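Postdoc handover notes: sequence design on the structure in folder B. Input tokens:
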């Protein structure tokens, strides 16, 4: 019992003892004439109902505010002052959240009495109305569900489990009448729900261990068809006797969506074949089975030959149709126990379990090559492609999924190197080569970050002036262990790994800075040529990048020539066309490098805003002995002049070669006849010593 020590309020000890025995909270609250509100007595029931000690409430009447709803706070004071002024009964229901976090419903009743000093005393009780309110809510909720819910709702007996009430949705979905359903039980509807399991669920509800149980099952309609459902099972104890309530949702659409998502996660959307996730799962199972039963299996890596040509020339729609047909032919070329998956792009992978020897895999590979070599007819187009196949065998070649796949991939590349449209088995030598290549890639990354890359400069001489008019910057790599590495080796590697972008940017910046240094030393202004490959465009060498390099180095754009290969502008690439336009806007010259060695069409050539055509050294090597080379050089020079291009002849090494090209009015000469590529110091000295043609 808790008492206030205010002497103006008389408290009878016996009445207080009685108050403490009454369920709920007995309280006395005073509203003073000036509107002050305080409690002078509150029973121990406050601790149970509110979770708030009564002495805390006596000390601070606002202690209860944090458990009542904000709506209650907003109207409480005004309502209480009105009741005090009009001396009306205080009869209020309120929802609370106790300090323990439990939701309860309360019903407060208090009678007011006017005091001599003008204050009003409210003597009353606050009752716990939670159970009755929940019952009311349950009844209301159940009524709404039965009347409005699109879900099926079933009310069935506590003991014999017969339905006593069902809603219209249940009738519509199950195709039974109300009368037919009333005589049935949940077990008459569920197709995969045993008696024992339902009994355990119902017992958990009866014992109070759970208030609600949810599960999935399947309902059977009157016509015998079935559909998946989600069931929420509750018990209603407010009825007499208690009953069970089942709320049932048809989840057919959800299941279809889940199946669709599951299929998307497991199968390639284009070909319908398993994807790489499923492929790896099957390979893991193949390893487990092979380890258990001692049988081999093979992994095939299939890469289509010339598929990029189809995409580039005929478009991705034709390419996609081709991939679909390839997937079908692969699937129909293997056994039922085999797995074929689309690994990505135009790459497919195959698992051949339970093979006795590698020859068995070779037979399948030959069958695949034969089927893929047959014409594909797509939208009036007859397409011919082949494939390169790599084969690896478990456990001879490797014992884990990643290594097996890597081995098959290496073998596939070996097949491509050896002519395509064939297959190759993995060998340890391939792994050693791949390891060496990976080592070189790591070394090249470190070379770019360090000082291992350097530039050489080969002079370009004007035939008419006899003077050095420019130089080509050539990158070299001085490996700390292996010495000088051929550009043919590391440039190809750089293009394949994406390092060509940063290397190309470094070459451009270093060459421009060196050319500026020569200008500052008083040497004549020379044209600087730098090679650019199509791969560099894909790896960051944009017009903005080049403009930034020129701005940072201060090198004049008019003194820079970028040497591009024919492959850069094949296919009317929008990126290449935009890049060429940006270069021309900067005032940079363009030269078509290695002209005549590629596969470009003259229709492309006429649209390229180039200034120079560079005749490849392969035509110059046999120039004095081979009439065909002589005719080719004359034709290239004539074509270049007709189209307004200047010509640069590279690879001139002898006086006889020089004497042949002079009368052709070629503009410029480059080659060992004048000088090999030189270091910056050597090139400076060469300029000082050069006497002209």
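Designed sequence:
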């Amino acid at each position: 019992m808790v008492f206030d020590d205010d002497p103006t309020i008389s408290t009878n000890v016996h009445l207080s003892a009685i108050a403490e025995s009454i369920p709920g909270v007995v309280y006395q609250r005073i509203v003073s004439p000036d509107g002050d509100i305080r409690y002078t007595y509150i029973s121990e029931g406050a601790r149970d109902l509110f979770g708030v000690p009564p002495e805390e409430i006596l000390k601070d009447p606002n202690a209860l505010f944090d458990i009542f709803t904000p709506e209650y706070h907003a109207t409480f004071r005004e309502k209480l002052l009105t009741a005090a002024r009009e001396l009306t009964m205080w009869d209020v229901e309120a929802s609370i959240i106790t300090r323990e976090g439990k939701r309860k419903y309360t019903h407060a009743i208090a009678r007011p009495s006017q005091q001599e000093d003008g204050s009003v005393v409210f003597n009353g009780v606050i009752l716990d109305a939670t159970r009755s309110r929940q019952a009311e809510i349950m009844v209301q909720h159940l009524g709404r569900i039965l009347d409005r819910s699109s879900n099926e709702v079933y009310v069935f007996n506590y003991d014999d489990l017969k339905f006593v009430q069902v809603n219209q949705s249940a009738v519509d979905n199950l195709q039974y009448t109300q009368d037919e359903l009333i005589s049935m039980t949940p077990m008459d509807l569920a197709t995969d729900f045993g008696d024992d399991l339902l009994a355990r669920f119902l017992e958990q509800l009866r014992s109070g261990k759970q208030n609600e149980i949810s599960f999935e099952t399947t309902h059977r309609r009157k016509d015998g068809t079935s559909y998946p459902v989600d069931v929420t099972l509750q018990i209603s104890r407010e009825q007499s006797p208690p009953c069970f309530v089942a709320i049932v949702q048809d989840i057919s659409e959800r299941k279809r969506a889940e199946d669709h998502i599951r299929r998307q996660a497991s199968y390639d959307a284009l070909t319908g074949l398993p994807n790489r996730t499923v492929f790896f799962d099957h390979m893991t199972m193949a390893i487990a089975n092979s380890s258990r039963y001692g049988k081999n299996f093979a992994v095939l890596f299939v890469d289509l030959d010339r598929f990029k040509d189809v995409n580039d020339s005929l478009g991705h729609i034709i390419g996609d149709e081709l991939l679909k047909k390839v997937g079908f032919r692969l699937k129909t070329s293997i056994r039922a126990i085999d797995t074929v998956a689309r690994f990505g792009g135009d790459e497919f992978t195959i698992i051949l379990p339970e093979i006795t020897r590698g020859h068995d895999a070779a037979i399948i590979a030959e069958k695949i090559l034969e089927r893929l070599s047959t014409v594909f007819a797509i939208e009036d187009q007859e397409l011919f492609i082949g494939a390169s196949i790599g084969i690896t065998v478990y456990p001879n070649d490797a014992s884990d999924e990643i290594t097996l796949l890597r081995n098959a991939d290496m073998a596939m590349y070996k097949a491509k190197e050896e002519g395509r449209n064939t297959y190759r088995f993995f060998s340890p030598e391939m792994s050693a080569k791949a390891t060496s290549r990976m080592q070189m890639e790591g070394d090249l990354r470190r070379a770019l970050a360090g000082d291992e890359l350097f530039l050489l400069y080969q002079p370009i001489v004007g035939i008419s002036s006899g003077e050095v008019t420019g130089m080509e910057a050539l990158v070299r790599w001085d490996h700390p262990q292996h010495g000088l590495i051929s550009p043919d080796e590391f440039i190809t590697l750089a293009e394949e790994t994406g390092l060509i972008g940063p290397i190309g940017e470094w070459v451009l910046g270093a060459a421009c800075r060196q050319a500026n240094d020569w200008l500052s030393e008083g040497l004549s202004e020379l044209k600087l040529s730098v090679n650019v490959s199509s791969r560099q465009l894909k790896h960051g060498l944009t017009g903005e990048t080049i403009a930034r390099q020129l701005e940072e180095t201060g090198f004049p754009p008019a003194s820079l020539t970028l040497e591009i290969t024919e492959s850069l502008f094949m296919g009317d690439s929008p990126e290449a066309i935009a890049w060429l336009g940006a270069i021309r806007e900067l005032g940079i010259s363009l030269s078509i490098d290695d002209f005549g060695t590629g596969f470009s069409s003259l229709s492309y050539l006429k649209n390229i805003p180039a200034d120079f055509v560079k005749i490849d050294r392969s035509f110059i090597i046999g120039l004095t002995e081979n009439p065909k080379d002589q005719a080719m050089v004359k034709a290239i020079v004539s074509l270049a002049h007709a189209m307004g291009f200047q010509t640069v002849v590279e690879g001139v090494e002898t006086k006889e070669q020089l004497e042949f090209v002079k009368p052709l009015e070629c503009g410029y000469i480059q080659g060992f006849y004048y000088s090999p590529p030189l270091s910056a110091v050597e090139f400076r000295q060469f300029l000082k010593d050069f006497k002209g043609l």
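Context for whoever picks this up: The domain at 270-426 is CATH 3.30.70.270 (Alpha-Beta Plaits). Don't rerun without checking with the PI first.
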